[in-house]
Fold:
Amino acid sequence: MKDIADIKIPPIRNGTVIDHIENGQALNVLKILGVNENNIDSSISIGMHVPTNKDGKKWKDIVKLEDMELDETTVSKIALIAPEATISIIRDYYIAEKFAVKLGEKVVGLVRCSNPNCITNKGEPVLPQFFVENRNPPRLRCVYCDRTLLNISDNLI
Amino acid sequence: MDFYDKDLVSIRDLTKDQIEYILDLSKKMVPYARGEKVKRALDGKILGNLFFEPSTRTKLSFESAAYRLGCDVIDVSEMSMTSIAKGETLADTIRMVDAYCDVIVLRHPFEGAARLAADVSENPVINAGDGAGSHPTQMLLDLFTMKEAKGSLEGLNVTMVGDLKYGRTVHTLAQALANFGVKLTLVAPESLQMPHDIVDRLKRNGCVPKKTSVLEDVIGDADVLYVTRIQKERFPDPAEYQKVAGTYRIDNAMLRNAKDDMMVMHPLPRVNEIATEVDSTPHAKYFQQAFNGVPVRMAILCAILGGDI
Ligand SMILES: Nc1ncnc2c1ncn2[C@@H]1O[C@H](COP(=O)(O)OP(=O)(O)OP(=O)(O)O)[C@@H](O)[C@H]1O
Ligand SMILES: [Mg+2]
Ligand SMILES: [Zn+2]
Structure:
């Protein structure tokens, strides 16, 4: 069933729809995309706090990007803050591909460790790495210092 | 049991079977650790003892363990004043030391340093404590001490008291004990209780610790009382420190309600958490514990370097 709110946002011809974003995370998704008013040439529609009834949730966020497709790194980062998000690739108004975001076993180089005393924050030639202990809600454990990462969205690289 | 050429960085590197293997091998090492028997099982090997932070006990017991097995030691604790001062990364320092020895023992102030060292080193790395992170050889010698005194770890009531928040020893030990069906009791003021993420991990391993701030209420149930130091620096108010430190001081009066065979452990050095009058009671096991650092580290070196005992 189409969510009523989806319809309020104008359809796009080509691009990407990121749906079922964790309520409140749309702006963090934009931060991950790295888009702002100066560096894109197509439209972005954002739905924040829109009603849904999927998986017993009441609210979700949704982002529609015209003429953009996402690379793998970006999709992984989105999975870190919006583990239930779906990505639909739209070509000529139709959904050409649709998939759910999913974290792998490890997250490498996407987030920084929240432990200031961790060796990965001390100028060593090493990428921060985390074991994915839980996907939803995401729980990451630093491969190096063994701490559970607090505040994933604040530590995105 | 395959330990040969493996790193020992955190408790994650050890299965329950591997822990038991090390504990059994440690027992065999005791007469060699005392010098009653001699075997140069690691003749010709070189250990690089890399201490970026002072630690008399751990460093000396690794040296002693190595020498008892005929393994030579190069002591590179001067590193902290030379290379690091010049801004060399730990990764580069490790690559260099790696070329001069067969196993690296690392103590470092930053958490995760040993994992990084293990990543860049060809030779195995043994973590001798990294910041507030893990200290697996201390954990193994603590388990060994409990097992030797009690015969088995299964079902023991282990009561930890003191600074459970910042003490790396108790974090690692608690997680290891959770593998052995131990009943854990955590005694600390709320501000120094075990961090939530560690408690959650214990629970996921089927160990639900009992928490309290009153030692008197639980001391009678303990089989092992593991005492740690409460550091003055943790308290903004010195009066508050005095009060808390006094509350958990172990003396003969405190031990009146303890089981006769309850053992008191402490990773040492103690300041005044345990009154010296306790030293001469059968409860005191902390000097035995300190000695056990040698056979346990001998077992670890032997297993990793492939020595034959
Ligand atoms: N041409 C289009 N322009 C803009 N958005 C579109 C377009 N086509 C589909 N969408 C949006 O893409 C998302 C996925 O579409 P789909 O038809 O699979 O939705 P659904 O049936 O509601 O499924 P779900 O269970 O994932 O909510 C929805 O948010 C939908 O509104
Ligand atoms: Mg929908
Ligand atoms: Zn870390």
